[in-house]
Amino acid sequence: MTFGAKSTTDEVLAGVDLSGRRVLVTGVSAGLGVETARALTAHGADVVGAARDLGKAKRATGAAGVASERGSLELVELDLANLASVRASAEALNADGRKFDLVVANAGVMATPFGHTADGFETQFGTNHLGHFVFVNRIAPLIKDGGRLVNLSSAGHRFSDVNLDDPNFETTEYAPFVAYGRSKTANILFAVEFDRRHKGRGVRATAVHPGGIQTELGRYMTPEVIQQLMDNIAATQAAAGAPQFEWKTIPQGAATSVWAGVVAAADAVGAHYCEDCHVAQVVDNDAEVREGVRSYALDPDHAKALWAKSEKMVGERF
């Protein structure tokens, strides 16, 4: 069956039985993470939800009815902006030893004011990329042969390629959306190199763009900034003859994550970038149109270079 931009999680998973499947989802305290966990447990999966604020995650998942009569939900603490927390969380999961069929690296921040993580990394690159880089690599042995990794990226990867010479904006002037773009490009490149390293045992990695959704991700943006962004998108889409931008609902936004994680063929999505429940085309000729993926985000040599730089930054080899 063919799915698209308006497909929801329940439509994508219709008739899919996930009983006996174990899934880890980061960022289950709001928005897409909660909906991803809800949809998976509704179809029988046992979900481990990771969140920085366990109280908030408990309230959000309870209100959303996560953990049905079929599947289960277990919450673990994970602060991606603090590598001590990241390593402790991974250590606890490794000690537990139960394997995962799927890991969805969903958590993230967007367009934050300039700042640093507990380890001194620029906030967005440190949280969105480096936190997940250490966490996922540390629990990689727990991903079953034939399992998958889904990294949440964004159409925002078009704002900027990664800057391996100045990842923390020490010499570059900080711009919130440039920093966001760097981190989202990094999410794709991480999937590309993780896929190369693990596909020998059938583990495939992919990156997805959920679409434009009004969630807590935009909490650092003023209404004026959001309106300006929307006006720019509308103008550029119209100039390119592309369809008018429409917000997605949260179930529509989470659909591509579950599609890429459990419905699509592994070989179709491995080392690719997906949007609207399909594999995106490479689009380099128009910097303004939102559809498609920039070639720099899929470049295998670039992915290897980012991996090496990330290892150096976190002081750990994988």
Q: How would you sum up this structure, described in words?
A:
Helices cover 41% and strands 14% of the residues. The chain has one domain: Rossmann fold (3-Layer(aba) Sandwich). The mean pLDDT is 92. It is an alpha/beta fold.
Strand adjacency order, main sheet: 3-2-1-4-5-6-7-8
CATH top level assignment: Alpha Beta
Structural domain count: 1
List the helices and strands in order: HEHEHEHEHEHEHHHHEEH
Radius of gyration: 18 Å
Uncertain segments are none
* Residue-averaged pLDDT: 92
The CATH homologous superfamily is named NAD(P)-binding Rossmann-like Domain
Q: Mind telling me which CATH architecture this is?
A: 3-Layer(aba) Sandwich
CATH topology: Rossmann fold
**Spatial shape:** globular
Tell me the major beta sheet.
Answer: 8 strands, mixed
Per DSSP E runs of 2 or more residues, the count of β-strands stands at 8
Work out the helix count: 11
Structural class: alpha/beta
Beta-strand proportion? 5-15%
